[in-house]
Design goal:
This protein is α+β, with helices and mostly antiparallel strands and 498 residues long. It contains 17 helices and 24 strands. Helix 12 runs antiparallel to helix 13.
Length: 498
Amino acid sequence: MAEGRRRRLLRANTPGVSRIIMTESSSQSFRVAVVGGGLSGLSAAHRLIEKSQESGKTFDLTLFEATPRTGGMIATKRIGDYLVELGADSFITNKPAGVALCRRLGMENELIPTIGQWRKSLVLKDGKPVQVPEGFMLITPAKVWPILKSPIFSWGGKLRMGLERLLPAKKAAVDEDESLASFVRRRFGQQLLDRLVQPLVGGIYTSDPEKLSLRATLPRFLDQEQQFGSLIKASRSQAKQQSKAENSASGARYGLFTAPKNGIQSILDCLREKVETSATIRSDCLIQSITKNDNGWSVTIVGGETELFDAVILALPTHRAAELLEGVSPELAEDLSSIEYASSAIVVSGHNLDDITHPLDAFGLVIPEIEKRDIIAVSFSSRKFPGRAPAGKVILRTFVGGAMHPEMMELSDDALKQMVRNELTAMLGVTGEPDFAEVIRYQNAMPQYHVGHLDRVASIESRVAGLLGLELAGNAYRGVGIPDSIASGEAAAERVLK
């Protein structure tokens, strides 16, 4: 139906009567529906528009968003003189999709680096913040002396970590998977897992390390084991190629992170403006069903009309995509439903630095599960990037819930705020009334990359390949970060065009 006369199905509702009205209009365009107005959906729509402009071909594009606003889990808000991120506050640059999109949007010059002075992480040990050893990156203790000096580990734990250099590599099949916990326990011992890796890596994915797939999240460590025989040997080899600043950081490679000076939402705002010039955006528009027929894909809106499209991109959480596709392919719906999700919340607050005993000389604090506290981590948001908080102030973003603490999501907003205040007082010496405090909830929104995740994704992709005109995009498949979500949406658009 890319050429010739196009049929549009409109569902009209009168009291006691529901009928379908057929209308026709002349069109040479290829009709595409993007369902989901988050980062992946907007990226897919934008890529289709770019390709249309490059090729001179016409696309009739409609983006459907169930909520009143596009942007999904990303939002930036001005609260007085604070610039507050309610979702992600940065993205990594060694995955190219994020920077490449900003470049094409004409906003590459707006990207700013993290503040070098505070490129460290803290971890809670016996209720007190302790610096993550210099050079430690997510899993690997790359430097000996900082580990030996660190009060985080016992001497037995330090000795066990040092033995990693002598352990043979596991004989593994190509692309064999393993949980984060199993891998770290096998290579470095239980203490490193409990005290550092679980809070650092598990916190990124809000996941249980006993279930988290290493192949789907941090495959480089499995590959390093096979290539070098030891992760310590691999890290030392790579350290020779990195800058001194990167080697002195701790926790994550913070020098690789960036954000627009006006917040992450500025990327979404620019994307929306670009998409609106060539497509229709229908916000507050919930999709009731999607069906496949000989003429393409019928998309029915709750309480509204049915429209016919040549292709549909579902940029939705997999459980929502499964609901819409149950009648199209029960097998695909079952595969999509097999990807589990967790819920989490962020309590973001603004404080006077004079009301905080701790110097906050880092980017944030992670809390090991072994400490038995009620929060996952605290990000010192305004320590990461300039222009986020007024002079003498700081923004704290406290993370709650996730796969390890689902019971926290049952608390009311007021109860969450009070619990967080108690924890911040105990850990960082936060006193006084905050300038503001807000709770942002992400209900059933965090995909869990459990062991075998890539096999599940391969099965999903195989089934989708048999449904001409259907594509999937989002953070549930091959990466949860901002560049991953952008790349997923753009790849779906490219496949539609083929």
